[in-house]
Amino acid sequence: MTAIDASALAKYVLRERGWREVYEFIRDNKPIYSVDLIIKEVTNTLWKYVKRQSITDNMA
Fold first, then answer.
1. Are strands 32-33 and 2-3 parallel, antiparallel or unpaired?
2. Would residue 58 count as lying in a domain?
3. Which H or E element spans position 26?
4. Measured between alpha carbons, how far is 6 from 13 in angstroms, rounded to an integer?
5. What's the rounded Cα separation, in Å, for the pair 22 and 40?
6. Helix 6-14 crosses helix 38-51 at what angle (to 10 degrees)?
7. Spatial distance between the Cα atoms of 44 and 24, rounded to a whole number of angstroms
8. Residue 57 within a domain
9. How many helices (H) and strands (E) does the chain have?
10. How far is residue 47's CA from residue 30's CA, in Å, rounded to a whole number?
11. Which domain range does residue 8 map to?
């Protein structure tokens, strides 16, 4: 079983340094599992970026 955590998924979504490695991991490993809270955790990360004005709410 292959798993991904919220920090790696957030890195991919936000295109932070190293996001291409996460993309390769996602592309090459099917199926990928995670905890049920991953959507909430990534959404919380996006909210923090919006709050710091690092990204717009439309981008999030």
1. parallel
2. no
3. helix 19-28
4. 10
5. 19
6. 50
7. 24
8. no
9. 3, 2
10. 28
11. 2-51
Amino acid, single-letter form, for residue 22:
V
Per DSSP, 41 falls in state H
**pLDDT value of residue 1:** 78
Please give the biggest Cα pair distance in the chain: 37
Question: Is 16 among the domain residues?
Answer: yes
pLDDT in tens, the chain (60 residues): 788 999 999 999 999 999 999 999 888 877 888 888 999 999 999 999 999 998 888 887
Torsion angle defined by CA atoms of residues 29, 45, 20 and 38, in that order, rounded to the nearest 10 degrees: 0
Domain count within the chain? 1
Is 42 part of any domain? yes
Determine contact, residues 2/26, Cβ cutoff 8 Å. no
